[in-house]
C-alpha cells in the first residue's frame, strides 16, 4: 500500500473491525480521474481509504457518451450522494487527467453542498522517466 | 468521397494529388476550371472524417500542453510562477475543438472554473500565447499547414450548472411544501377521527402513518 496504516488491535479495543457503516466522516478527499473517454470519481477519507466510488460507465452511459460532461456530472452526484448521508461536510478535490470531466465534476461537487476546501491537480508527471507511446499519425 | 474545388486560370485538366500523410483515400482528383471572374483563390476542402481526426488530435495535444508546458501554465495561472501551484485558484479545461473544413482555422473552446478574475486572467493569458501555441502545435503535429488558433470562452458548462442549480432549488422547495401539506393533512384527519370516535377505545388512534 502507499501509506503505512498503523494496525489497531481489534481485541484490545473491544471493537470488531467488521463494523463497516456508522462511521461519521466529516472531512474527506474526492479524487476525480478525468480521461478523454470516461470520468471516475472516488471518495476517500483523509488517509486514503475508499468510501465510495462512481464512474460515468457505472451510471449507465456507454461508449462515447461516457466522455461527456453530463456523464461526469451524474457520476459526481452519484458518488457524493452516498457520502453526504455519512455526514461529509468538507472535502479536498484531487484532479487527475486532461478530460472534460474535470470541470463538470467540480461544478457538480460545488452544487451538491459539500464545502470545497482545496482543489489540487495531481496529474502524474514523470521527471523524464518511461518512454511515452509513439506519436499518433493523423 | 473527397471533395475538392480548385479555381484557377488554366484550361480543364485532371491532376492526381497525392497527400503527404497516410489517409484512407490517398489520391484525389482535382478539376481545374477556368474562371475569369474570381481571383486566383485556392480552396482545398478535406475529408470530413479527416477533419474530425485532426480536431481530436489537436484536442489531445492542447490538453497535454496545458498540463505539462510551463510557459502556458504560467500564462493561465500566474501564481504557478511563484511556486504556488499546489492549491489551484482556477482550473482551465479545453472543452471542445472545432476545426474548419479546410484545416486552416481552429476554434478552441476553453472553460475556466473559478472566480471572475481568474477567468479573465486565464483567457487573457491564453490569447496572448496564441502564437506560441501555434508554433508548439506545429512542432508536435505533422500537418502541411499549421492552423491559426483562436481561443474562445465556453460558457455552456457554467450556464448548464446554473440551470441545474435552479432546478434543484425549485425541486427542494416543492418537496418541503409537499411535506408541509402532507403533515397538515395528516394532523387534520387524525383530529377529525378523534372527534367522531371519542367514546370508542381505538388502540390505533394515536398512530400516525407517515411515509
From TrEMBL, chain A:
Organism: Gossypium darwinii (Darwin's cotton)
Subcellular location: Plastid
Sorted UniProt keywords: Plastid, Ribonucleoprotein, Ribosomal protein, RNA-binding, rRNA-binding
InterPro entries (alphabetical): Ribosomal_uS11 (IPR001971), Ribosomal_uS11_bac-type (IPR019981), Ribosomal_uS11_CS (IPR018102), Ribosomal_uS11_sf (IPR036967)
Main location: plastid
GO BP terms in the entry: translation
GO CC aspect terms: plastid; ribonucleoprotein complex; ribosome
Region (Disordered): 1-24
Keyword Protease in record: no
UniProt GO molecular function: rRNA binding; structural constituent of ribosome
Protein name (Swiss-Prot/TrEMBL): Small ribosomal subunit protein uS11c
Entry-linked Gene3D superfamilies: Ribosomal protein S11
Biased composition (Basic residues): 9-24
UniProt record similarity statement: Belongs to the universal ribosomal protein uS11 family.
Automatic annotation (TrEMBL), chain B:
Matching InterPro entries: KH_dom-like_a/b, RbfA, RbfA_dom_sf, Ribosome-bd_factorA_CS
A single GO molecular function term of this UniProt record: ribosomal small subunit binding
Upper taxonomic lineage: Eukaryota, Viridiplantae, Streptophyta, Embryophyta, Tracheophyta
Chain positions covered by the region annotation Disordered: 175-211
Pfam families linked to this entry: RBFA
Record-linked SUPFAM superfamilies: Ribosome-binding factor A, RbfA
Ranges of compositional bias, category Acidic residues: 196-211
Species: Gossypium darwinii
GO biological process: rRNA processing
UniProt protein name: Ribosome-binding factor A
Amino acid at each position: 500500500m502507499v501509506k503505512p496504516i498503523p494496525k489497531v488491535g481489534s481485541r484490545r479495543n473491544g471493537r470488531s473491525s467488521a463494523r463497516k457503516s456508522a462511521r461519521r466522516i466529516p472531512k474527506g478527499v474526492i479524487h476525480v480521474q478525468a480521461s478523454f473517454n470516461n470520468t471516475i470519481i472516488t471518495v476517500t477519507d483523509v488517509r486514503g481509504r475508499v468510501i465510495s466510488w462512481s464512474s460515468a460507465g457505472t451510471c449507465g452511459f456507454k461508449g462515447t457518451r461516457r466522455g461527456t460532461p453530463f456523464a461526469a456530472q451524474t457520476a459526481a452526484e452519484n458518488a457524493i450522494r452516498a457520502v453526504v448521508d455519512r455526514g461529509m461536510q468538507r472535502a479536498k478535490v484531487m484532479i487527475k487527467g486532461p478530460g472534460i470531466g474535470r470541470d463538470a465534476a467540480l461544478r457538480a461537487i460545488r452544487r451538491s453542498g459539500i464545502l470545497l476546501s482545496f482543489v489540487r491537480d495531481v496529474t502524474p508527471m514523470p521527471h523524464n522517466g518511461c518512454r511515452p507511446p509513439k506519436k499518433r499519425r493523423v | 468521397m473527397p471533395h475538392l474545388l480548385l479555381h484557377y486560370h488554366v484550361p480543364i485538366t485532371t491532376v492526381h494529388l497525392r497527400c503527404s500523410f497516410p489517409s484512407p483515400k490517398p489520391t484525389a482528383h482535382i478539376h481545374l476550371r477556368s474562371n475569369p471572374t474570381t481571383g486566383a483563390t485556392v480552396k482545398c476542402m478535406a475529408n470530413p472524417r479527416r477533419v474530425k481526426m485532426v480536431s481530436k488530435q489537436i484536442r489531445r495535444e492542447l490538453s497535454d500542453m496545458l498540463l505539462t508546458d510551463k510557459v502556458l501554465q504560467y500564462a493561465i495561472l500566474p501564481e504557478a510562477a511563484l511556486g504556488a501551484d499546489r492549491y489551484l485558484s482556477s482550473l482551465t479545461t479545453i472543452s471542445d475543438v472545432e476545426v474548419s473544413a479546410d484545416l486552416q482555422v481552429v476554434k478552441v473552446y476553453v472553460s475556466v472554473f473559478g472566480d471572475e478574475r481568474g477567468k479573465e486572467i486565464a483567457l487573457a493569458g491564453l490569447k496572448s500565447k496564441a502564437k506560441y501555441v501555434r508554433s508548439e502545435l506545429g512542432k508536435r503535429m505533422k500537418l502541411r499547414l499549421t492552423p491559426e488558433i483562436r481561443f474562445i470562452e465556453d460558457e455552456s458548462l457554467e450556464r448548464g450548472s446554473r440551470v441545474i442549480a435552479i432546478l434543484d432549488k425549485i425541486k427542494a422547495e416543492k418537496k418541503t411544501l409537499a411535506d408541509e401539506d402532507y403533515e397538515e393533512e395528516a394532523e387534520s384527519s387524525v383530529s377529525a377521527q378523534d372527534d367522531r370516535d371519542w367514546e370508542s377505545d381505538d388502540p390505533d388512534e394515536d398512530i400516525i402513518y407517515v411515509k
